[in-house]
What we know:
Layout: E1 17-19, H1 22-32, E2 35-36, H2 38-43, E3 50-51, E4 65-67, E5 78-80, H3 87-103, H4 107-111, H5 132-142, E6 177-179, H6 194-214
Parallel strand pairs: 1-6, 2-3
Antiparallel strand pairs: 4-5
Flavin-adenine dinucleotide binds next to helix 1 and helix 6.
Amino acid sequence: MKNEFISYYIVIAKKEVILSAGAINSPQLLMLSGIGLKTVLDDFGKALILDFTCRITSLPKSRGRVKLGSNDPLTNALIYSNYFAEESDIQLLIKGLTIGAKLSRTNALINKGYDLITDLLPGCKSFTFGTEHYWMCALRTNTKSINHPVGTCKMGLYNDTDAVVDPQRMIYGIVKFRVVDASIIPVIPRGNIIVPTIIIIEKGADMIKNKWQKS
Length: 215
Ligand SMILES: Cc1cc2nc3c(=O)[nH]c(=O)nc-3n(C[C@H](O)[C@H](O)[C@H](O)COP(=O)(O)OP(=O)(O)OC[C@H]3O[C@@H](n4cnc5c(N)ncnc54)[C@H](O)[C@@H]3O)c2cc1C
């Protein structure tokens, strides 16, 4: 799109601004607005409004990162998933896989006709099935995302240096600016995230109504 076709508007919010663009686009829009990591914003020549050093991060132990790809709001943000950056995450999964393999050899499962498929996975054919090195290879070459990003604008108490928003979903350091989407989930849940996301949004809607219906 050429610049001459873009219209610019100044919009004044009488009550508050609610950002609900999702776990990837909410941090992107914040960073485009000069709210984010100083070191990242410096690279894009952004006037810094608020420095959230270490605050735009996600995932337990291994932490991913969402960064600006460019100053253009119409280009995609850069997503660094960073799976297994922390060795403890991979060790935990190896323990789980080892337990699962053991379970497959119990009479209870054998009698039900269960059989563990021991075909070597692509990329791991030089390893012996079931060894720690095999599981490590299987995890590093076959792990995929199932589209559940969270925690890029983490909710937390003021003394939590990773927190971007407070329990009312208001951005620390900025007045009347609320984030209401999956980006505020502090840690990745064990299951799929649409239900916790809906709960967060419903609760957020109640907070907004409670605040403004009274005034
Ligand atoms: C393919 C796929 C399958 C999934 N399957 C499941 C599943 O089976 N079960 C489950 O629990 N979860 C599933 N999820 C995850 C779940 O859908 C998301 O995690 C959930 O929607 C998270 O919501 P969010 O808050 O990140 O915002 P989103 O749902 O991403 O909503 C953000 C909204 O903001 C809009 N937006 C973004 N930027 C702008 C902008 N600049 N201006 C205006 N609007 C903007 C977007 O168009 C979007 O409508 C799936 C996700 C994907 C991608």
